[in-house]
Amino acid sequence: MAADTEKAVSKKPDYALQPEVKAFIDDLVKSEKFSRQELQDILGKAHKSDRVLELISRPAEKRLEWKDYRRIFMTQERVDRGVTFWEAHEKTLTRVEKQYGVPAHVIVAIIGVETYYGRQTGGFKVLDALSTLSFDYPPRSKFFTKQLKEFLILTREQKLDASDLTGSYAGAMGIPQFMPSSYRAYAVDYTGDGQSNIWKQEEDAIASVANYLRENGWKAGKPIVSKAKVTGTKYEKVVSDSVRPKKTLKQLEGSGWRPVAVLPEASKVAAIKLEGDKGPEYWLGMHNFYVITTYNRSKLYAMAVYQLARDVKSSYKTSVPKPQKTVAEKQSQ
User: Fold this and answer.
1) Is 6 a catalytic site residue?
2) 7: closest CA among 113, 172, 128?
3) What is the mean predicted confidence (pLDDT) over 167-178?
4) pLDDT tens figures, 248-269
5) Which pLDDT tens digit goes with each residue over 266-294?
């Protein structure tokens, strides 16, 4: 979801000279056989970004209710552009769905939510963003220091210029917005040109999203989420912030939950409550819903992906021309 861009960069410290940066360099020289001078040169180009620090402190997933978050992503234009993206990459999506077991409409929706199908990949220097969050954002310094390390390794592996790449304020990169650790673990060179180019190659991006979901446990052919109806006085007690499906449907039915769709009683589900335009909405999230949250740990994000995928699939089906019947087929009717 890389809509923000860097507009102003503060006059920053030279990161290569800070004590914690020197320790970071020492670690990479020892553990990854980097040249000390190379790292000093790269990190010497990194600039502290006040805008990054501002944005990381107020992500949309924590600021907004579902009714407001939904309006950002569930627009007719985003659905229409999803259909256009699907049509443009139909052959790749068909092959990837068969190979990885992840539905084409889910892949399209993730790319649609993340970067508006590659239109909004972020205008921050990844090196600046990750350096700022590693060395000037104590609450998550450990996580982002790991990401900075992974970023420097991947740029070496892929022969990329670390000071040139752009992404989101959190350092997520390319069409699918992969963090550096996700890139190294899941990015796919689907075109076979020797580089997993998620910045410019839609084929690589599509396969990388599918590979990410499969490796994080996607179950082919299984449902994602079901709307639910609630009754009685106990239903609120089983709602949890976690979307990991831990209870069986039968257990939740005892607390007043009923799925709108038909589901086996043994299905593991999570009880989800969202604030919609017309009041509370109740949903039962299943394993694949949880898998989507490994991409972004927010139930609002996962629901936006699910609903966009559903609507894009519906529109795509109606937009694809039906094959013309042959003369023999017409005569046999």
Assistant:
1) no
2) 128
3) 98
4) 999 999 999 999 988 888 889 9
5) 889 999 999 999 999 999 999 999 999 99
Summarised one tens digit per residue, pLDDT across range 4-17 is 655 545 555 678 78
Q: Are 145 and 155 in contact (CB under 8 A)?
A: no
The span from the CA of 306 to the CA of 191, in Å, is 28
DSSP bridge partners of 271 = 284
Among 170, 224, 166, CA closest to 60 = 170
Q: How far is CA 136 from the centre of its chain?
A: 25
Handedness of CA 34, 35, 38, 44 (dihedral sign): positive
Choose the catalytic residue: 6, 97, 114, 202: 114
The Cβ of residue 123 has, within 10 Å, a number of other Cβ atoms equal to 15
What phi and psi, each to the nearest 5 degrees, are found at residue 195?
Answer: -140, 135
Q: Residue 92 contacts by C-beta under 8 Å, 6 or more apart in sequence?
A: 190, 202, 203, 206, 207
pLDDT of residue 332: 45
333: pLDDT confidence band, cut at 50, 70 and 90? very low
CA distance 204 to 200: 8
* pLDDT, tens digit, 9 for 90 and up, residues 209-251: 999 999 999 999 999 999 999 999 999 999 988 999 999 999 9
| Distance between CA atoms of residues 24 and 146, nearest Å | 10
| Range name among 19-28, 66-75, 128-137, 316-325 with the lowest pLDDT average | 316-325
